[in-house]
């Protein structure tokens, strides 16, 4: 005899439904997101007289402490059911579209009962793979943040300070972002001489020194003049965004270096090197795809 357990998780509490092989709910409970709450699930299983190996558990994500607790207690029949699958079968359980947390927990348990042959049991990845997955997820998050900050900063500069967009080759370069912080207004940008501009570029790590006269000429070229009030509105936000964008870009590069190091340290790396197969790029692509699809992955 088996029992199917559906868990609809949230940050503060978890709705749990136990159903039997006939599809009837035998226990419904809501437990807090605490160690005591997690133990209530185990206590309920014991009261039902079910062995752990006869309990099949369905959740929508593996990225929470509930899964860690269940796995540490010896539950090995855990199934992570993708939210897309849950959404596709919701019509079986009603046409109104209304949903409750208890209803979702029942749906997960019953879906596991009826469709288990189409689902894959979940097992935790090795520690190196989990570490790489976290790095990949962070890189994806930082990439999205870079895009958001860049778009916001570009829109603001177009509004009051377009010259800052044209001085260097790209807005996301270190020298361009440091320039906006050092010279946050058109008036400030008009003050440095060529020698001062070149000294600033060298301090900012700019290496194409032969291009600096052309950069300076673009800075000095006539530009539409914004109203003083417009400058006053945006002159504090632009350098703040530039600092945040530069910090985020540097964090992304640092994380990419850390991921590369993790890839080289992975136990499978040497085997793939011997077989001359591209382990690093392959696993990075897989983890990127999984992190992009699983919105609950931190």
Write the layout of secondary structure elements.
Blueprint (H helix, E strand, L loop, with lengths): L2 E7 L3 E7 L5 E8 L2 H14 L6 E5 L5 H8 L5 E3 L2 H7 L11 H15 L11 H34 L2 H4 L7 H9 L3 H4 L4 H10 L8 H9 L7 H7 L2 H29 L3 H7 L3 H15 L5
Parallel strand pairs: 1-4, 4-5
Antiparallel strand pairs: 1-2, 2-3
Helix pairs in contact: 5-12, 5-14, 7-12
Give a short summary of the structure:
By secondary structure, this protein is of the alpha/beta class. It folds into two domains: 3-124, ATPase, nucleotide binding domain (Nucleotidyltransferase, domain 5, 2-Layer Sandwich), CATH 3.30.420; 128-293. The protein has 14 helices and five strands.
Describe this structure in words.
The chain is an alpha/beta fold. The protein has two domains: 3-124, ATPase, nucleotide binding domain (Nucleotidyltransferase, domain 5, 2-Layer Sandwich), CATH 3.30.420.40; 128-293. 58% of the residues lie in helices and 10% in strands. It is built from 14 helices and five strands. The protein has a five-stranded mixed beta sheet. Helix 5 packs antiparallel against helix 12. It is elongated. Mean pLDDT is 89; it is low at 274-279.
Give structural attributes.
single chain; 298 residues; alpha/beta; 2 domains; 10% strand
């Amino acid at each position: 005899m088996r029992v199917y357990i559906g868990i609809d998780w949230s940050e503060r509490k978890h709705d749990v439904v136990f159903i039997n092989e006939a599809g009837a709910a035998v226990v419904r409970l809501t437990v807090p997101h605490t160690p005591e709450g997690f133990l209530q699930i185990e206590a309920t299983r014991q009261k039902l007289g079910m062995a752990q190996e006869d309990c099949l558990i369905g959740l929508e994500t593996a990225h929470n402490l509930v899964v860690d607790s269940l796995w540490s207690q010896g539950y090995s029949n855990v199934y992570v059911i993708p939210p897309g699958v849950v959404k596709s079968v919701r019509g079986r359980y009603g046409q109104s579209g209304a949903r409750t947390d208890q209803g979702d927990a029942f749906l997960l348990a019953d879906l596991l009962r009826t469709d288990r042959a189409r689902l894959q049991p979940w097992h935790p990845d090795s520690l190196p793979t989990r570490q790489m997955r976290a790095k990949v997820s962070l890189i994806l998050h930082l990439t999205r943040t870079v895009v958001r900050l860049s778009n916001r900063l570009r829109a603001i500069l177009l509004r009051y300070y377009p010259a800052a967009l044209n001085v260097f080759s790209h807005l996301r370069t270190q020298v361009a972002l440091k320039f906006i912080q050092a010279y946050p207004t058109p008036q400030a940008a008009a003050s440095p001489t060529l020698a001062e501009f070149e000294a600033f570029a060298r301090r900012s790590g700019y290496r194409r020194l032969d291009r600096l006269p052309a950069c300076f000429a673009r800075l000095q070229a006539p530009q539409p003049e914004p109203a003083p009030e417009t400058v006053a509105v945006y002159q504090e936000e632009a350098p703040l965004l530039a600092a945040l964008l530069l910090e985020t870009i540097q964090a992304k590069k640092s994380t990419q270096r850390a991921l590369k190091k993790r890839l080289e340290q992975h136990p499978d790396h040497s085997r793939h090197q011997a077989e001359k197969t591209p382990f690093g790029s392959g696993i990075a692509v897989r983890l990127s795809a999984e992190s992009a699809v699983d919105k609950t992955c931190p």
